[in-house]
């Protein structure tokens, strides 16, 4: 197969959802279709329920086996599909945001009863800003839920999307009879008794025929006819280009648990979803079909095997062919590196691969060379953009609780920060170290991991900071900037890249500071150009 055709058959995407909407269940059913797993229950649900740290620790403990869930690859009808895992829990949102830089499209799962929830809103906003193509799957149709039109309205308003249903439910919950597939013009009947696997698909070319009444009953048939007419009047026709530009979002209905409507979703997905997309770098836009390999690190997973203290850096291949044992330039530190055992990920295992193509994810063993956002090329001096750090919202001083282990503590903190678990700041005034995180759960995770992976102990002290902002002076030599630095000396720190950061203790301070120093810009993400 040529490189072009390898690119053409790849679909790399993420499933995003508020916890409990059914992301894990849907992932599992997709894998079943791909023959990647043999039975339900094989995919580890790595969600953290209700913020319980113990759940997270359990996940950590199981990491050796569950790591495959970071990336799940499978073959379906000639397509190579890569699903990237995106944690739904809000404390891990940063991890999800970063993963979204590596997907070419997403499927958004919405619970039919709960509608659009908080995390969905945040994640969709990120996708919308990046024009990532989205397909929406409304799940749990076997349960009593909200009216389909209501939900579509809510999706349009809360998520600011323009939707078009490509399937439509016939009844719901107790009365759920099946789904009309607008895309394929057929009906899928839901059999309440078997409720599992085998789906019967019946072609219906003409909705006015009495065949429909025979299938679902006269009342449901009439309702469906009326509703489809309304769909036709109210929603735009599907247009692939608009979908690919992030301007139109097709919607499917189904029940992941009952494996209902999932094949329809998958069949449409492989047909319309984008092949690996071009990506902007510091110097130019890079296209997948370019000859030279390039890729970037979007995730680092630590200590998968407790016996070997190493990490796995996940690289999304943007262009060219990645080959085992070829020398590639690690752009940030200017070194050439070779990788003798790059991993690819399948549903239940990882395996060493010789070549990988754009859209694929490879896992490279790392002894501390990589940071999130690092770029590999065949020699070109450029780096991929758009993996910023986000303004943390929780802050604590971190202290060494075991003076004999200060080296271990330093190394542990260093590596956890490279992984993107949290951010470390050093106060300008007194050199004290401050940990900033997006979610509160991270503090316990850091403490636990420092102890269990590095043999170091830390303690925390509260610090009253509302937000940390990256500082950019229009003119670093100006009197205004000098005044800013003098007046705010107590609230200034450096991040790991030695960029200046301002700790605002309230949103009021933030506003006041910004208006008092108009030529000192305060940014909420670390990457601004
Ligand atoms: P998540 O990854 O998005 O957090 O959700 P997950 O798939 O774990 O699903 C959350 C719960 O919703 C699970 O139940 C799952 O069985 C259920 N679920 C998923 N899809 C459907 C569906 O189509 N219909 C119905 N009725 N339920 C669905 P749970 O009780 O929390 O977990 P479990 O013990 O069943 O695994």
TrEMBL record:
Biological-process GO terms, alphabetical: regulation of translational termination
Ligand binding (GTP): 85-89, 139-142
Keywords: Cytoplasm, GTP-binding, Nucleotide-binding, Protein biosynthesis
Gene Ontology cellular component list: cytosol
Transmembrane segments: none
Entries under InterPro entries matching the protein: EF-G-like_DII, EFG_III/V, G_TR_CS, P-loop_NTPase, PrfC, RF3_C, RF3_dom_3_sf, RF3_GTP-bd
Tr-type G domain: residues covered: 8-277
UniProt-annotated location(s): Cytoplasm
GO MF term list: GTP binding; GTPase activity; translation release factor activity, codon nonspecific; translation release factor activity, codon specific
Domain of life: Bacteria
Main localization (coarse): cytoplasm
HAMAP family reported in the protein's UniProt record: Rel_fac_3
Entry function: Increases the formation of ribosomal termination complexes and stimulates activities of RF-1 and RF-2. It binds guanine nucleotides and has strong preference for UGA stop codons. It may interact directly with the ribosome. The stimulation of RF-1 and RF-2 is significantly reduced by GTP and GDP, but not by GMP.
Family: Belongs to the TRAFAC class translation factor GTPase superfamily. Classic translation factor GTPase family. PrfC subfamily.
Protein name: Peptide chain release factor 3
